[in-house]
Amino acid sequence: xxxxxxxxxxxxxxxxxxxxxxxxxxxxxxxxxxxxxxxxxxxxxxxxxxxxxxxxxxxxxxxxxxxxxxxxxxxxxxxxxxxxxxxxxxxxxxxxxxxxxxxxxxxxxxxxxxxxxxxxxxxxxxxxxxxxxxxxxxxxxxxxxxxxxxxxxxxxxxxxxxxxxxxxxxxxxxxxxxxxxxxxxxxxxxxxxxx
Length: 195
Hints:
- Among the domains are: about 1-45, no CATH class; about 110-195, Aspartate Aminotransferase, domain 2 (3-Layer(aba) Sandwich).
- The protein has a three-stranded parallel β-sheet with strand order 4-3-5, with helices on both faces. A two-stranded antiparallel ribbon has the order 1-2.
- The protein is globular, with a radius of gyration of 22 Å.
- The chain is of the alpha/beta class.
- The protein starts with a helix and ends with a helix.
- It has eight helices and seven strands; from the N terminus they run αββααααβαβαβββα.
């Protein structure tokens, strides 16, 4: 059975290549920075999320080495069971102090955060108004909750206003947007959204 499946998959992959739709991996041979080594030459990296250049900042790398020496690599469990360490609480407390918030909770990824936040806070009485070009993890997180969903055209404040009016009967209305739309590099007009 596997041989027939392999044959079919091989054929489909060739069709993808023939159609010019095959995307080979770009293997990077350097740290993630504004410039990366690809195929033994430097390339300008415009497709990563390392906007602030912290991934290879010497201070961050040194702090990571120090943390590895003290805490080891990885957790033995998820945080809820027995995976919360002092270092998590120290970071969350420091972030809360820096941001001026009551508390902070860290997630292992944006996907996890987006998958949990909307369902925990909103139900069928609420409305979430989402930018059309939000990251897929935001869109998935919104889909997982029971709130009514509205979408406005990317960075279009007139359309946002129309969607807010459409959702006016909701208990809570929340506008959800990326800060930076990573596929296009656009910034969300946060002052306009907040006003």
